[in-house]
Amino acid sequence: MHPPEDQLAQTCAAWGIPLDAGQIAQFAAYDRELRLWNERINLTAIRDSAEIYRRHFLDSLSLARFWGDDPASLADIGSGAGFPGLALKILRPSIRITLVESVGKKADFLRHMADELGMSGVRVLTARAEDVGRDRAERERYGLVTARAVAELRVLVEYGLPLLRVGGRMLAPKGAAAHDEAAAAARAIDVLGGELVGVEPVEIPGLDAHAVVIITKVRLTDSRYPRLPGMPRQRPL
Question: Which residues pair with 146 in a beta bridge?
Fold first, then answer.
């Protein structure tokens, strides 16, 4: 079996997003720190290095195939242990990223990890996505919004589209039900100023096939959205 870093490098090269030796070293450091911190706080149920590389690193980096023009700014909602936000930052160090994470201990890990990896241009907001989306300083300023394993798509777009500038893209990794979720979210996407670009398949060695839902922002989001914290989940659009 190939070492996980070899599979990471080979798969990314095949995708047309090659990693250099420094980036491979950063992912190795990320893996070590994640497993170390995971002994103290529950960051991820995945504890094996090979699975971390596949299910976290490669799954995150696959989004770069669909982000269109290299975005200058990224907001990652419900960032948890930093996926996909910090992984994409390793790939494109020039991106300014904001990691939105409401759990304080996870936010502490994100700050630590950014420092450990020597990153600049990383902000961590310990806040609810709804509150960030209602903040005028954050609203409609990002070229890319990502969210992974956070909520169903009808809810996710209410978290993400208010943060996205017109012309920007939202990328949402989803499982086997991606097409069904996209169909169910059609009204919400339209109400929030978005337009569905497509649902693209993703294949990662050793994992079940899944997909990325791609949404572009075509007009400003009505100031009523996002609604107050909890409302998007309780009453999805």
Answer: 76, 171
